[in-house]
Write a structure and sequence with these properties.
Among the domains are: about 80 residues, no CATH class; about 80 residues, D-Maltodextrin-Binding Protein, domain 2; about 100 residues, ACT domain (Alpha-Beta Plaits, 2-Layer Sandwich). The protein has 11 helices and 24 strands. The two termini are about 25 Å apart. Helix 10 runs antiparallel to helix 11. With about 425 residues, the protein is α+β, with helices and mostly antiparallel strands. The structure holds prephenic acid (PRE). It is an enzyme of class 4 (lyase).
Length: about 425
């Protein structure tokens, strides 16, 4: 699967041959992708009631032209699935018949079996369906869980390793990558706070989420036994997720944090460290030539990390599949507003799936009181909330309109499909 990216400011070019006139026009879009990079539309009118250089005289002409154009979008890349084409062709035949009945001018159209599928809302989703391979930035080196999350989110993508989370954000902002995949929370280790801060500092949009079952292994050089180990290195989240098990394994040794799990494995291998073990995936063991001393060493077997996918442009929210929306807000009167905000969701039966608070770095402290009684120093927070509704849902729109009244700052980080994949920890990393 592949797709072609078009900058938000650019447009999809359409060419229309109407009678002797070939008309080119652009449809500007605010979507991350052009699902149909090379679209050629041919339409011949015998009674030419179209103006040259434009599409039609009246709004009705223009609308019917657009309908015809949409039904005749020609794409080389979509003619592979014969069954689908047959279904589509039947649908398109109906559409064309209807259109022909409505139109006074008869249309000479392309052979029906050459007609491609009309664009649907699914074509506008962030999943790569057309064009070149999607480039997905992640933090870490090959074998990191984030790489596996990128593969789960976008099968066949080109995963681009980045040494820092910040770099993954910038890779998308600078068009080096199309998406970034970012861990935000783990069922055992909790939130990855840095990434909440980065979500606010950068202007990317959350366009999806994936939940990855994380199965940690204790890795060491071939021939090294557990008794030789006096240091365990890994990502701080991985160390936290395996804390109790390491102790149970008798590894009450120094634990050192490094940038990512697979990087820890690479470090042990590259430096031929015989006294150090790494916590990383089985894939990292394979990639860096290490042995698995213990498998499944996370403190709970159902260890899941939630990742979000980020893009330069938001996706169109839908209501036909389960959606989640992530927001961040603050208020000048601090936490006192929290109850009101939460009740805006409760009254509309919208479930919250996550609340996170982070220091309000622009205004970290608020002084309350006076000289006589003393001055209290309250910490100021930003609140991150995820709720189970799409921005296309009127309940969510009304809830946010109400939240906006109570808050001094509100930003929608993204509205995106919930990860509803069946639970199969054994199949994952
Ligand atoms: O170090 C990795 O392999 C990562 O992908 C990072 C990360 C994280 O930041 O939480 C991802 C999943 C696991 O929870 C452990 C580490």
């Amino acid at each position: 699967m592949h797709c072609v990216n078009i900058p938000p400011s650019s447009s999809i070019g359409f060419k229309s041959s109407i009678g002797s006139t070939t008309t080119s026009f652009n449809v500007s879009h605010h979507l991350p992708y052009s699902p149909q990079p090379n679209i050629i539309i041919k339409c011949v009118s015998t009674t030419n009631n179209f103006t040259s250089g434009g599409v039609g005289k009246s709004r009705a002409d223009w609308q019917s032209s657009c309908a015809i154009l949409a039904s005749k979008v020609e794409s080389e890349s979509q003619n592979t699935n014969k069954n689908k084409t047959t279904e589509t062709t039947t649908e398109q035949t109906k559409q064309i018949t209807l259109l022909n009945q409505k139109q006074s001018n008869s249309l000479e159209i392309m052979p029906i079996n050459k007609l491609p599928k009309p664009l649907t809302i699914a074509d506008l989703s962030p999943a790569p369906t057309h064009g070149s391979t999607l480039r997905v930035a992640y933090q870490g080196v090959p074998g990191a869980y984030s790489e596996a999350a990128a593969g789960k989110a976008y099968p066949n993508c080109d995963a681009i390793p980045c040494d820092q989370f910040e770099v993954a954000f910038q890779a998308v902002e600078l068009w080096i990558a199309d998406r970034a995949v970012l861990p935000v929370e783990n069922s055992l280790g909790g939130s990855i706070h840095r990434n909440y801060d980065l979500l606010l500092r950068h202007r990317l949009h959350i366009v999806g989420e994936v939940q990855l079952a994380v199965n940690h292994c204790l890795l060491a050089l071939p021939g090294v036994r557990k008794e030789f180990i006096n240091r365990v290195i890994s990502h701080p989240q991985a160390l936290a997720q395996c804390e109790l098990t390491l102790t149970k394994l008798g590894l009450n040794v120094t634990r050192e944090a490094v940038d990512d799990t697979a990087g820890a494995a690479e470090f042990v291998a590259a430096n031929e460290l015989r006294d150090t073990a790494a916590i990383a995936s089985a894939r990292a063991a394979e990639l860096y030539g290490l042995n698995i001393l213990a498998n499944g060493i996370q403190d709970d077997s159902s260890n899941v990390t939630r990742f979000v996918m980020l893009a330069r442009e938001p996706i169109i929210p839908r209501t036909d599949i389960p959606f989640k929306t992530s927001i961040v807000f603050a208020h000048e009167q601090g936490t006192s507003v929290l109850f009101k905000v939460l009740s805006a969701f409760a009254f509309r039966n919208i479930s919250l799936t996550k609340i996170e608070s982070r220091p309000h770095r622009n205004r970290p402290i608020r002084l309350v009181g006076d000289e006589n009684v003393g001055i209290a120093k309250h910490f100021e927070y930003l609140f991150y909330v995820d709720f189970e509704a799409s921005m296309a849902d009127v309940r969510a729109q009304n809830a946010l309109a109400e939240v906006q009244e109570f808050t001094s700052f509100l930003r929608v980080l993204g509205s995106y499909p919930m990860d509803m994949t069946p639970w199969s920890p054994s199949k994952e990393q």
